Amino acid sequence: MNRFSKSLMFGIAGSVLLIAQPARAQFTASIKTNTINGVHSNWVGNGSYIVGSNTFKDVLRVINSGVLSNGAAYIGYETSGSNNVAIVTGAGSVWSNGNDLYVGLDGAGNTLTITNGGTVFSDDGVLRSSNNMVTVTGTGSVWSNLGVVSVGDAGVRNTLMITNGGAVFDLAGYIGYAPGGSNHEVTVTGTGSVWSNRNNLDLGEYATSNTLTIANGGVVFNNDCYLGFFGSSNAVSVTGPGSVWNNGGNLYVGFLGTNNVLTINSGSVVASNAFVGYYPDSVYNFIKVNSGSLFVTNAMGNGALVVSQTGGAGSLIINGGSVTADELIATNGANSIISFNGGTLTAGSAFIDNGQDFIIGSTSSNATYIAAGGTHFFNNNFVVRRGALLLNSGTMTVNQLLLTNGANSAITFGGGGLNSAGTFVTNNQQFVVGNGATGANFHLLGGIHSFHDGLRIPNAAVLTGCGTVTGDVTIDSGGWVFTDCGTLTFTGTVTNNYALGVDGGVLEFYGPVVNNGAILLYNGGTTNFHGSFVNNGVVLDAGWVHVSVITNAGNDVIIEVPSASGFGYQLQVSPSLDTPVWTNSGAAQSGTGGVLTFTDPGGATNSPGRFYQVDVFWPPE
Fold it and tell me: Which of 54, 324, 461, 523 could cross-link to 434 by cystine, CB 3.0-4.6 Å?
């Protein structure tokens, strides 16, 4: 069979006569037992071995290092072949099938048990018909397939159980393949229990209500996974410490199917990319993280967690645990739903344009959003209802930032950039930009920015942009406020201990201003003080800076510049104004309130010309 394509099923379309059977009379009556005990049995001509052709409750036992070799194998061949059993038990006990192994071709209620270190080899491994079961249990117990394992190739309620250190290996895995089938189950449970698919895993190709459970330290490997390729109401549950589902490629929760669910409780899920609802017909699919971890990352650093790419409603629900993604994307309007009720969400970048507020935390549970570098864009409001926003690098852009639930709404803005068109902070904490050591930029995109407990700009931090700031503002030594886009308005008390600058616009103050640093005006920028102004520092208008005298003294050029106290002045020269390259000439000087004299030695001898400017800086070195 060796089916690893998206084509429909194989050639057994219900008629067993399509399969050549050189030998098929191992059991001639019901309730019979064949035992391979410590011997090698090479079935005649490598023909097919059938446990229960048209009989019931027949038993095959391979024990005590016995070996059975044959071609294809069937446990429950015809419809009347039901409740038959094959057991391979003990280290060295082997059932080697040179072709496919069917557990329930047309018969129901048949079982294969591989235990205590037993091994079964087959090409494809298929559970068909209904209520058939394979159990692989115990350390060293292995079912190894060259091709696929299909649990529920047809029928209903077929089961694969991998437990207590058992292992199943195959090319690809299918749970619920054929149309009309349903309720097929795979469980991988216990430390050391493994289902390893060298390629893809398909859960609900066409069938519905199929489940994969990874529990108590079980592990599943595959490349891509389609959870609901066409099928609906399929589910994966990853539960218990040490339980891992490792998707080396893409994880699709709802490729074309509907109502498919991945639930994570304490375990971990890894994928290179993850999609909740992929195509337009794929609706009402969910990823739910209650505890444990979801990692969406790859070697390129662009692992995308996409909530409803183009289809109907898809949801990412985080109630606890952690979700880590290189990129978080939700751009399909109201169909892209993110419910962030608890736990931690860490994103290398984010693009959220779904017409919904991005809300951190529920009314009773804390949640934390960590912006781990990159660009984070939220077209609507970013609301810290209960929990925290951590921004230490990268750039975040929001329509409005809301921290309005008292001490429950927290932000740590240690570095990077925050762009906001509106800010409302009533969390009983001063809003601090940066950590005082790492560069941080809070950029206002217009609008109103209200800080009930004040705004602080510490060392290495900058407040830029335009808009209205309500609440008291403190600018620490090394902090800057700068606007070059129009008007920046302050309604509360402003205490400037370093620098306020305006380039071509207006700094508007309606409350008291205490200037202990510098106020710098560029390109016609102005200040308006509607309240009191106490100037303990300096004010400099760039328009005041000019060269008052330039003369030659022999080969030298002498330049005189009026100065203001508290600023540094540096003469600079360039050989051309077409593509000027300015270099310092001589040492910088501190302003005195009088005239400063600069000498450019040999300046008069330069040909064809020499150009001068004065760089004014603050604070002086």
Answer: 461
Which tokens belong to 303? Answer: 């692992």
pTM value is 0.89
Q: Which of 349, 352, 407 is nearest to 378 (CA)?
A: 352
Contacts of 433-439 with CB under 8 Å at 24 or more apart are 433/457, 433/458, 433/461, 433/462, 433/463, 433/479, 434/458, 434/459, 434/460, 434/461, 435/392, 436/460, 436/461, 436/476, 436/478, 438/392, 438/414, 439/415
Cα separation, 234 vs 447, whole angstroms = 47
Q: What angle do CA 34, 36, 37 make, to 5 degrees?
A: 125
- Cα–Cα distance between 543 and 521 in angstroms, integer? 8
Report how far residue 493's alpha carbon sits from residue 475's, in angstroms, rounded to the nearest whole number: 11
Query: Are 61 and 90 spatial neighbours (Cβ–Cβ below 8 Å)?
Result: no
Nearest-angstrom CA–CA distance, 518 and 540? 8
State how far the Cα of 559 lies from the Cα of 446, in Å rounded to an integer.
43
Rounded CA-CA distance 531/514 in Å is 11
Task: Give tens-digit pLDDT for 356-407.
Answer: 999 999 999 999 999 999 999 999 999 999 999 999 999 999 999 999 999 9
Please enumerate in sequence order all residues whose Cβ is within 8 A of that of 426, keeping only pairs 6 or more positions apart, or say none: 403, 404, 406, 409, 450, 452, 453
The helix/strand/coil state of 277 is: coil
Q: What is the DSSP string of 294-317?
A: EEE--TTS--EEEE-SSSS-EEEE
What are 135-161's pLDDT values in tens digits? 999 999 999 999 999 999 899 999 999
Identify whether the C-beta of residue 442 lies closer than 8 Å to the C-beta of residue 463.
yes
Map out the domains of the chain as residue ranges.
Answer: 357-544, 546-617
- 3 state DSSP class of 339: strand
Q: Is residue 422 within 8 Å of residue 399, measured between CB atoms?
A: yes
CA nearest to 460, candidates 502, 419, 432, 489: 432
Contact (CB, 8 A) for 56 and 80: yes
CA angle 496, 371, 443 (to 5 degrees): 30
Pairing of strands 595-600, 556-562: antiparallel
- Cα gap 42→105, rounded to integer Å: 23
